[in-house]
Amino acid sequence: MPYQNFFLSCLLVLLQTSISQQEEQSQLLLVSFDGFRWDYVNRVPTPNFRDLMNEGVQVEKVENTYITKTYPNHYTLVTGLHAETHGVIANEMYDPIHNKSFSMEGPSVYDAWWWEEAVPLWVTNQKAGKKSGAAMWPGSDVAIGGTYPTHYLSYNASMPFETRVEKLIDWFSGPEAINFGVLYWEEPDESGHNLGPESPLMDPVIADIDDKLGFLREKLKAAGLYDKLNLIVTSDHGMTQLSHDKIIELDTYVSRDLYTWVDKSPVVGILPKEGKLEEVYSSLKNANPNMVVYKKEEIPEHYHYRHNARIMPLIIEVKEGWTVMQNRNGSFMLGNHGYNNSLPSMHPVFVARGPTFRREYTKASMRTVDLYPLMCSILGLKPLPNNGSLSSVQDLLVETPTSKPEVLLTPRQSSYAWAVGSILGTALVIGFLFIFVQQVTQRQLPPLHLSNSEITQPLL
Ligand SMILES: [Zn+2]
Which residue positions does the secretion signal occupy (predicted)? Predict the structure, then answer.
């Protein structure tokens, strides 16, 4: 029958529309240029950063988390948790309960146990049935909770930026596309350490990062992704200039036989030998005006750096620009980070653009912990408990998340609600069409039949 074919066609169109709506999910790429200080964009012409600011949003002051080191802050960016809560409290760690050590330069990086006090966003995204891709982000080549990103690259510092970008573009394209990607690049951190951030030699390094951002933009445009995808460009921390005149030698104040040194300057974990805590503490307490020594319980609450077994019984924090070493035989760098997160020199850059972000909007300040709930909102995911606040950064977005109720649903509820809604909607439309077509076909029946029924019925 012709109208049955018509129903089938309607049904197919409805199903195809529903499927394409489901596939039309927000895409998000988070990029970190390690050690890109917030004000580097003002040092040399940075046309690509400028374009992103004009096309999207810029945040002038971004407060990262204590300590302002690479591993703690990269994990904060993808968990919304301060270091004491996500557990990656330093680049070098010791866990006294389990007698285990972690070093960012050793195989312990791949021991998932260090990462499993939190769940990174790529895992949450995948648990919601979506796909993630990671290019060298710290921790992204570790099976955290038994799960790797859907696509990832094993860490290889020598893989060029361009290759990492091309991998991500592939993952963001095609029918099996990811909706969330993370991209990491080692510069300008490495040059900042070696040259010092105030060196004029840093200018071409910063210009090169802008060129790399330009390469990413061009590749996104060529793939037809530039206007579909939300792009966030930020960093883990800034960088400050050091000086040979600003070195504190711990051996001057306390015997190294009394403690174990954990992590490096400018915030050092000190593990006193059994029964030696008070002796070490009193030796260091007023030893040098350019360093502060805290017993663990004295660490200011607003540092969010106390409640974790991996934080040592004593920590030393030195003033900006100072270096703490056991003696001068240790290696010395001209630039460093890790200092107090209230210092402007420690703050990272932040720019973002895409369909979800406002245009030409400058925000005065945010905290990096707020980025996680913001990204969850963009991806339509329910955030896990975190230290951030979506309402603090909601003004960066075009649309308020309250207009997207599915954000508050669990992934299972969300897909269930979608399925029920689709079935009910389809059934209603088919029912309506059935009645409509029935009416039309009845009116087109032969006049004799119609008149018969009209005549016979009143006679019953
Ligand atoms: Zn870093």
Answer: 1-20
Global pTM?
0.83
AA identity, residue 97: I
> What DSSP assignment string belongs to 158-200?
TS-HHHHHHHHHHHHSSTT--SEEEEEE-TTHHHHHHH-TTST
Compute the distance between CA of residue 295 and CA of residue 303 in angstroms, rounded to an integer: 14
Give the integer Cα–Cα distance in Å for 146 and 135.
Answer: 19
Q: How far is the CA of 290 from the centre of ligand 1 (A)?
A: 24
Tokens for 241, please give them.
């200039």
210 Cα–ligand 1 center, Å: 18
What confidence tens digit (pLDDT) does each residue in 55-98 have?
999 999 999 999 999 999 999 999 999 999 999 999 999 999 99
Task: Specify the length of the chain in residues.
Answer: 460
In terms of Cβ atoms closer than 10 Å to its own Cβ (0-12, 13-18, 19+), residue 451 is exposed
pLDDT tier for residue 427 given thresholds of 50, 70 and 90: low
Domains of the chain with bracketed CATH = 2-10+415-459 (no CATH), 27-238+343-407 (3.40.720.10), 247-332 (3.30.1360.180)
Distance 1 CA to ligand 1 centre (A): 69
Give dist(CA 332, CA 322) in Å, integer: 11
Residue 209's closest CA among 29, 28, 45? 45
Name residue 310's amino acid. Answer: R
pLDDT at position 409 over 90: no
The Cα angle at residue 203 between residues 197 and 209, in degrees rounded to 5: 95
- Cα of 69 from ligand 1 centre, angstroms: 6
pLDDT in tens, 322-332: 999 999 887 88
pLDDT digits (tens, 9 = 90+) for 352-380: 999 999 999 999 999 999 999 999 999 99
Runs of H (alpha helix) within 243-334: 277-285
**What's the gap in Å between 409 CA and the centre of ligand 1?**
35
Residue 262 scores a pLDDT above 60: yes
DSSP of 28-91 = EEEEEETT-BGGGGGTS--HHHHHHHHHSEEEEEEE--SS--HHHHHHHHHH---HHHHS---S
Read off the DSSP letter of residue 357.
Answer: B
Rg (CA), the chain: 29
Q: How many angstroms is it from 4 CA to the middle of ligand 1?
A: 64
Ligand 1 centroid distance, CA of 333 (Å) = 14
CA distance 438 to 435: 5
* Residue in this structure with the two tokens 């690049």, named with its chain if needed: 185
Contact 35, 188 (CB under 8 A): yes
Sign of CA dihedral 398, 401, 403, 406: positive
Residue positions annotated with a catalytic role: 70
